[in-house]
Amino acid sequence: IPPVSIRYLRSILEPKDAPPDQGYEVAFAGRSNAGKSSAINTLANIGRLARVSKTPGRTQMINFFTIDDERRLVDLPGYGYAKVPGEIHRRWEAALERYLRYRESLRGVFLLMDIRHPFTEMDEIMIEWCAHRGIALHVALTKSDKLSRGAAKNTWLLAKTRLASYGAPDFSVQLFSSLKKTGTEEAWEVLGKWLAL
Ligand code: GDP
């Protein structure tokens, strides 16, 4: 993978404000606190890119980053924390679903799951959406430094089996730690393939 530089582009609430739907896009998804912002920062290798702000206004936005005119990374709103009022929550879920359903340039979903709490209900829904729509999916089991090597590998094997049960050919899973900076090469191999880098 050639070195790339990643710039923050914009945050949107409405799909109409998204950058033109062309080229290659990879979406990062995951439950709030799964380590998504940290992972994006680690993969982009420039500090605080995804902005770790947790205010309700920000959490429902879709954040776009550009690599070049043809390639983008997308930070989807983190799900799972029902701390926001119902109305905001519904808008955010609808925006997420709309994005996944209609975005033509979407080449793959990079799903972050805390290795200690994998496969939450919303994770399963996200995985089913990908399987149903034929979108490639790569799962990163984050914070793998929190488990022993053996326990982490065991969780990885279980996750692999569980993902295989969806019967989708382009589903994969890896261990990842932003703290230890492990798994970044494996992650970029997948991102590079999806983004045709
Ligand atoms: P987000 O809500 O999914 O964007 O999650 P954040 O990236 O903000 O991370 C949530 C919490 O997990 C923060 O306290 C991070 O410091 C911590 N965290 C994130 N990645 C790692 C990791 O690889 N290892 C460890 N030990 N903690 C992490």
UniProtKB/TrEMBL annotation:
PROSITE patterns reported in the protein's UniProt record: G_ENGB (PS51706)
Classification via Pfam families: MMR_HSR1
Keyword Nucleotide-binding: yes
The UniProt record lists the keyword Acetylation: no
Gene3D superfamilies the UniProt entry points to: P-loop containing nucleotide triphosphate hydrolases
GO biological process: division septum assembly
Family to which the UniProt record says this protein belongs: Belongs to the TRAFAC class TrmE-Era-EngA-EngB-Septin-like GTPase superfamily. EngB GTPase family.
Record's function text: Necessary for normal cell division and for the maintenance of normal septation.
Protein name: Probable GTP-binding protein EngB
Natural source organism: Methylococcus geothermalis
Lineage of source species: Bacteria, Pseudomonadati, Pseudomonadota, Gammaproteobacteria, Methylococcales
Gene: engB
